[in-house]
Design a protein that fits this description.
206 residues, mainly alpha, globular
Length: 206
């Protein structure tokens, strides 16, 4: 497929939003870790927090190479910041309510929501890098390739953790750590297969 010119202004908007997502994502993880009851989940989120901080550094490198000011604000970036602050507030609200298990579930959902936006940002950055035309595309593609495995991992595994913690809270047999974790899932197809294997894994005593 031939490379095509892209809307540079909208790419810059995407990058500003992506940077804000990483900044807010670190705050989401910092608060989620405080809400984690399951020790394995807490360790997982601690790892994701460090990786998220590194993804921010990678984006700042992209900004430097493209000559963008990381302090630039746009209406879209401000919305992303507001959403991140709202997720942090939601976790604090749940924690203050005094039910650790419920707060852990809220934290799982907040991380999943934050990572859904984060994952999409990077997929779009990679898409421009792969299909766009111009000097910036190689910079974008290299940045995407350096984070894509971790981004898949963050979203798919946290989704699995949150699902299984919900199932456990409902009084039904849960697979903890979740199938996504046990099977080292890194793709959407793999996540679907892992979820479908739940009953089999329960039957084996996992």
């Amino acid at each position: 497929m031939a490379s095509k010119a892209y809307d540079q202004a909208q790419l810059h908007e995407l990058l500003y939003q992506a940077l804000e997502t990483e900044i807010g994502g670190a705050k989401v993880y910092e608060n989620a870790i405080e809400c984690a009851v399951n020790e394995d989940l807490r360790k997982e989120w601690q790892k994701y927090l460090e990786e998220t901080r590194n993804h921010r550094k990678i984006l700042l490198g992209v900004f430097e190479q493209l000559g963008l000011d990381p302090k630039t604000q746009t209406p879209g970036r401000q919305v992303v910041a507001h959403l991140g602050e709202s997720l942090v507030a939601a976790m604090q609200m749940a924690k203050d309510a005094g039910d650790p298990g419920a707060a852990e579930l809220v934290a799982g959902e907040c991380v999943t929501l934050a990572e859904t936006k984060d994952h999409m940002n990077w997929e779009l950055i990679g898409h421009v890098g792969e299909h766009g035309k111009g000097d910036a595309t190689q910079v974008l593609l290299e940045a995407y390739q350096s984070v894509e495995d971790e981004e898949h991992h963050h979203l798919l595994h946290t989704t699995g953790w949150t699902r299984e913690l919900w199932i456990e809270s409902l009084g039904l047999p849960a697979v903890l750590p979740p199938p996504e974790e046990v099977k080292h899932v890194e793709t959407k197809i793999g996540a679907s297969r892992a979820e479908q294997s739940r009953d089999q894994m329960l039957g084996k005593g996992h």
